[in-house]
């Protein structure tokens, strides 16, 4: 059994049109977003989901509260003791601080690795800003990489599930807690509204994959409250605060 925390390390002002696919009258309304990493701890394991981003590598619009590894440390876990870093996908804001968890094995879906290192991602202009060559070199270094295909149990009570949609090899993480099965969806849903309104964001790899992911998220979670989106500021209000940067999900 795990305790699970969300750590919000940064925020950004935005517009609804940047976060929901398709033009409508609400396009220009403000729509703030948040940047998270997640920490799952058991008696024997310390697992971080997504590495997050560091200020020196980030666009100016992103306002930092802390660095991802400082956020982990603020919950009493030494980043050097993190044994596993699950990377939900390889967008720059989920891989940038991977080197700050120096002992961690990295769990990546093979389809995600193959997409970002293959010929197509380099040719698609809209993918360029989401991709960091130096991050890919770090997180895909073979000595600490655990490539997985589809579903895989990382440890008892903690598994990953390939869904695609947002990216070619997007994966969910499912964690067993005192409240039941939690699904850390990361960017399979950026906001709870994506799921509730059945409306994706504009950054996506496959539309059928997006909707299959929404269905899979609901199947894997024990309740709607235990579904944790990737960039939703409301996560900080939905769960009890346990410090300046973190909430306890379960
Ligand atoms: Zn993403």
Protein described:
This is Glyoxylase, beta-lactamase superfamily II. Residues 34-231 form the Metallo-beta-lactamase domain. Its cofactor is Zn(2+). The protein is an alpha/beta fold. It has a single domain (3-248), classed as Metallo-beta-lactamase, Chain A (4-Layer Sandwich). The chain has helices at 16-19, 68-73, 92-95, 110-117, 119-123, 133-139, 192-196, 207-220, 235-238, and strands at residues 3-12, 33-41, 46-49, 63-64, 84-86, 105-109, 145-148, 151-155, 158-162, 171-177, 180-186, 227-229, 246-248. Strands 1, 2, 3, 4, 5, 6, 7 and 13 form an 8-stranded mixed beta sheet that branches. A hairpin with an 8-residue loop joins strand 9 and strand 10. The model has no long low-confidence stretch (mean pLDDT 97). The structure holds zinc ion. Zinc ion binds at residues 89, 91, 166, 187. Residues 89, 91, 166, 187 line the site of zinc ion.
CATH architectural designation: 4-Layer Sandwich
Share of helical residues: 10-25%
SSE string, helices as H and strands as E: EHEEEHEHEHHHEEEEEHHEHE
The major beta sheet can be summarized as: 8 strands, mixed
CATH topology (level 3) name? Metallo-beta-lactamase, Chain A
Question: Keywords for this structure?
Answer:
250 residues; metal-binding; five-stranded mixed beta sheet; 27% strand; Metallo-B-lactamas; Glyoxylase, beta-lactamase superfamily II; binds zinc ion; alpha/beta; single chain; metal ion binding; eight-stranded mixed beta sheet; 13 strands; Metallo-beta-lactamase, Chain A
Which helices and strands occur, and which strands form pairs?
Layout: E1 3-12, H1 16-19, E2 33-41, E3 46-49, E4 63-64, H2 68-73, E5 84-86, H3 92-95, E6 105-109, H4 110-117, H5 119-123, H6 133-139, E7 145-148, E8 151-155, E9 158-162, E10 171-177, E11 180-186, H7 192-196, H8 207-220, E12 227-229, H9 235-238, E13 246-248
Parallel strand pairs: 3-5, 5-6, 6-7, 11-12
Antiparallel strand pairs: 1-2, 1-4, 1-13, 2-3, 8-9, 9-10, 10-11
Bound molecules: zinc ion.
């Amino acid at each position: 059994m795990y305790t699970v925390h969300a750590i919000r390390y940064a925020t950004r002002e935005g517009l609804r049109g940047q976060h929901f696919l398709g033009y409508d009258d609400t396009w220009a309304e403000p729509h703030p977003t948040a940047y998270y990493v997640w920490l799952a701890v058991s008696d024997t394991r310390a697992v971080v989901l997504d590495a997050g981003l560091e200020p020196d590598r980030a666009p100016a619009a992103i306002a930092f509260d802390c660095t991802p590894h400082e956020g982990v440390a603020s919950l009493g876990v030494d980043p050097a003791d993190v044994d596993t870093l699950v990377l939900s996908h390889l967008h720059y804001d989920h891989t940038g601080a991977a080197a700050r968890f120096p002992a961690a094995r990295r769990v990546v879906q093979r389809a995600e690795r193959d997409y970002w290192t293959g010929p197509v991602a380099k040719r698609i202009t809209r993918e360029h800003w989401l991709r960091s060559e130096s991050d890919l070199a770090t997180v895909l270094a073979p000595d600490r990489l655990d490539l997985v295909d589809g579903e895989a149990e990382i440890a008892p009570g903690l598994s990953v599930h390939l869904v695609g949609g947002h990216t070619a090899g997007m994966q969910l993480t499912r964690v067993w807690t005192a409240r039941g099965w939690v699904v850390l969806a990361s960017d399979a849903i950026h906001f709870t509204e994506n799921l509730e309104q059945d409306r994706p964001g504009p950054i996506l790899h496959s539309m059928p994959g997006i909707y299959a992911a929404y269905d899979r998220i609901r199947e894997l979670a024990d309740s709607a409250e235990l579904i944790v989106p990737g960039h939703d500021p409301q996560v900080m209000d939905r769960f009890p605060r346990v410090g300046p940067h973190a909430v306890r999900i379960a």
